Amino acid sequence: MTPAAASLLTFAGLALLLGGALARRRLAGLVGAPPGGWPGWQGAGALLIALGVALQVGGTLTALGFTAPADVLAYLTSTGPGRAALTALLGTAVLLTGEVLGRSSVPVGLGAAVTLWGVAGGGHGAVGGDLPMRAAHALHAGAMAAWTGGVLVLACGRGTNWRAAARAFTPVALGSVVLLSLSGLYLGLHHAGPVQAWPGSGYGTTLLLKLGVFAATLLAAVGVRRTLAPHTASFPRAALAVEAGLLLVVLGVTAVLVGSVPPQT
Fold it and tell me: What residue stretches are annotated with the Copper resistance protein D domain (predicted)?
């Protein structure tokens, strides 16, 4: 369970840090800071990413029996997954620094791209050195973070104009859905083979479960969208909580997939 737990921590951190950074800019003036303020929110995200990367590296080295400091250094500098871990940590530091300073979006965008590239290189995206495959994993993780982080900010932030905030976030959510669908289909076909073969493997069955939860999340998002009608309540807290909860389940199932061996590589 260590790989799955490490991935879950990393994905949750991406949602808070990367998704929070995007939501902070997209919803500026429409939603107040979430609990703990933006520094606390994004600092927690960076900490979760660091813990996830550390758990992944530590679990791998422990399983191999390489726990001496020299072994750790050699792993981080001379192996693909090790360099990917360092890349993810470097990108996280750049992204967090850019958010704290708040002077330009350039370091934030650069840090986000580097972080996602590093995260994608620590799992199935690292197999065989396939750059398009790694890019697809990076896009998939980024889309999950953007959608989940934005919904969490909408649900937890002190909204000043709920309908305007929801409308401002809608393009981000739609873009995330499109990216998740396209990259997910590409990755699923590559790792699990034809769709009709998915029920025949544990990986494929888990993938089908993820699709089911993803579909339920889309239905929940449609329910939230309906609250934008003028005659409805001003803040659909329950509907947002359901959508956020389902998105967290999607993160969890995705983490299980990352920690599983696919039928095809």
Answer: 164-257
